[in-house]
């Protein structure tokens, strides 16, 4: 494990008066390899779009009143520097691992730093993420055990949470909703959290995120693409 940047969160953003407690871990893939399903639509804008999604997701996570700290697992120097400047702690991926190894690595690090904090992992491709909706999701997680939120299509997962002392056991990728349920995690059945469910893999997903209202980084790239 390499610590790429020091934690700067508390110097950049004030802590919420509502006692934030959650450690949140977000994975960010190397930009040149990320969001390949957007290639036909985004062309040369794809890496910039992937970075914009991550910046908007991490900004909203840092603004969530329930969140005490945001850790990003990321091998990409450009993305890592930009995300650290927002106030996230950036860790390098373990070499050779994929998404679930990156999440387990980030979760283990968060646990070492704050063993008593509740922990959640969140996909970093949620450019419409609203801090208040994320707070509602985290507030619905049972005090003991594991819980997850399904993505907008109901196939995958955007958030997996677990209480202190429980193994996270992430099983992300493709049809992960079914895998997380089969692994004993409780599904969070919340009606009004579209921004936490709306991950963006395709051009249609991006159109839906734009309709919900994306953050400034994604808005700027989308505007540049439209020119
Ligand atoms: N650190 C890290 N993050 C990953 C890795 N693979 C995926 N991610 C991140 O995990 C989240 C969900 O991944 P996907 O939706 O599959 O994103 P993607 O792999 O960029 O997209 P596709 O290339 O279209 O499959 C996104 O925030 C990705 O950046 C990985 O190997 N390491
Ligand atoms: C990573 C996942 O899926 P996708 O790559 O389709 O976003 C998932 O939902 O677990």
From TrEMBL:
It holds the Pfam family CofC. It catalyses: phosphoenolpyruvate + GTP + H(+) = enolpyruvoyl-2-diphospho-5'-guanosine + diphosphate. Keywords: GTP-binding, Nucleotide-binding, Nucleotidyltransferase, Transferase. GO terms for molecular function: GTP binding; phospholactate guanylyltransferase activity. Its EC number is 2.7.7.105. It comes from the Bacteria. Pathway: Cofactor biosynthesis; coenzyme F420 biosynthesis. It is an enzyme of class 2 (transferase). Phosphoenolpyruvate binds at residues 157, 173, 176. GO terms for biological process: F420-0 metabolic process. Guanylyltransferase that catalyzes the activation of phosphoenolpyruvate (PEP) as enolpyruvoyl-2-diphospho-5'-guanosine, via the condensation of PEP with GTP. It is involved in the biosynthesis of coenzyme F420, a hydride carrier cofactor. Belongs to the CofC family. This is Phosphoenolpyruvate guanylyltransferase. It comes from Kitasatospora viridis.
